[in-house]
Amino acid sequence: MEVQTVYFEKPGRQNTPEALRIARRRAEELGIRQVVLASSHGSTALAAAEAFRGTNIELIAVSISAAFGPEGWTMSPEERRRVEAQGVRLLTVQHGLADGVAEGFFGGVTPGTVMAETLRRFSQGLKVAVEVSIMAAEAGWLEAGREVVALGGTDEGADTAVVLRPAFARKIKELAVCELLCKPRLP
């Protein structure tokens, strides 16, 4: 099998339209029915709703938990309404890899943070794509082991897309990144 990987010159939200185009194309080629993506304030989710319009692909946007309100990273009620009005399912939960109870007790050196930092060596977006897939699987919105397209980004937007098989956190060794579709050339 030959699958093209696109490398962006720089990370960031300017890559969102192309990452979504690549994600849609590969999801349609593989017959994938679900796409999961990160969206802090709804702009990436709204762009995805437009990019996937006319498909029968379910979009799941994962937003960050209320614990990050002081940082300004949480979605407002109006932003949530706009996203959901476009038919995007919106999930808000605790991070799947880090920022939980273990980090509260032990700081930044836990298995979750080690995995997150390892994924960041490829790109921030890969860490986010893996993480939101775990979060959606934990909520029962993705079937563990069934291929999905997952997107994440660096700070804002989407600059990384992968085909992966999500897993529950307690079965993390079953998670598999099957295809790297696009990412920034340098993390």
Task: Please tell me about this protein's structure.
This protein has 187 residues and is α/β, with parallel strands linked by helices. The protein has one domain: 3-Layer(aba) Sandwich (Pyruvate Kinase, Chain: A, domain 1), CATH 3.40.1380.20. Helix content is 34%, strand content 21%. It contains 6 helices and 7 strands. The chain has a 7-stranded mixed sheet with strand order 1-7-6-5-2-3-4, sandwiched between helices. Helix 1 (16-30) crosses helix 2. The chain is globular.
Task: Give the gist of this structure.
With 187 residues, the chain is an alpha/beta fold. It is built from six helices and seven strands; from the N terminus they run βαβαβαβαααβββ. The protein has helices at residues 16-30, 43-51, 77-85, 101-106, 111-120, 124-138, and strands at residues 6-8, 34-38, 58-64, 89-93, 148-152, 160-165, 176-184.
Write the layout of secondary structure elements.
Layout: E1 6-8, H1 16-30, E2 34-38, H2 43-51, E3 58-64, H3 77-85, E4 89-93, H4 101-106, H5 111-120, H6 124-138, E5 148-152, E6 160-165, E7 176-184
Parallel strand pairs: 1-7, 2-3, 2-5, 3-4
Antiparallel strand pairs: 5-6, 6-7
How big a fraction of the residues is strand? Answer: 15-25%
Category by helix and strand content:
alpha/beta
Radius of gyration: 15 Å
Lateral strand order in the biggest sheet: 1-7-6-5-2-3-4
The helical percent reads 25-40%
According to CATH, what is the topology? Answer: Pyruvate Kinase, Chain: A, domain 1
Number of helices: 6
Q: How many structural domains?
A: 1
What is the straight-line distance between the termini?
26 Å
SSE order: EHEHEHEHHHEEE
Major β-sheet annotation: 7 strands, mixed
User: Would you report the number of β strands?
Assistant: 7
- Indicate the mean pLDDT: 93
The CATH architecture can be given as: 3-Layer(aba) Sandwich
Shape: globular
CATH superfamily membership? Pyruvate kinase, C-terminal domain
CATH classification class: Alpha Beta
Low-confidence stretches: none
